């Protein structure tokens, strides 16, 4: 019962901090909406480049435009959910360099919770883009008889949530390395930016070593590719979904462990 109360208290505190952060960000409404629209436009252009290629050649390694749109949509939604709920975890470097993390240490809330609720913003543009692409792809695949919508839809939503947790775990582990390295931009370029870009497309287009890397050491393929292999193609068993959940649990555990160790070794700037 005590544990349940503690969890409820943390959730209530998290929601309260998010509310304050959102109200603060809305003081600059032009910047908020401009950034929202810009992120959606950039994501749209990126997928349009793939769509042009697929429209010319019909399919890539057995993946049609509709199936590729599904992969892209799941990734966009998972990333939007992760960045909405934990945006400044990705920006830990600036807190370490400026010494602003010291201020979070003085707050009567866990440091990670305080960081997750800073500069909160709902990724409206990316969420709408991902949702529309997902609706299009699922409707088209159901119309063609490739999937049963009533089965694919809940499994897809579960994959999006699991993918967001997986991306958060990887992002947290990468950010935690900043406690020792301070500068982690290059590392984030590899573990987050480059990895996210890679799984926008079917992994079957990549060489075996890269496909293995994105499925093991840096398991971002479990955000969309491997769930899609079961949900859309039925090429693998349902165990793939369980393996995806295990990958996110492992990433969260690794990220939490590194964060805890790193925070204990953090040397305050004294500012």
TrEMBL record:
The keyword Transmembrane applies. This is ABC transporter permease protein. It comes from the Bacteria. The chain crosses the membrane at residues 33-57, 69-85, 159-182, 203-226, 238-259. The keyword Transmembrane applies. Keywords: Membrane, Transmembrane, Transmembrane helix. The lineage of its organism: Bacteria, Bacillati, Bacillota, Bacilli, Bacillales.
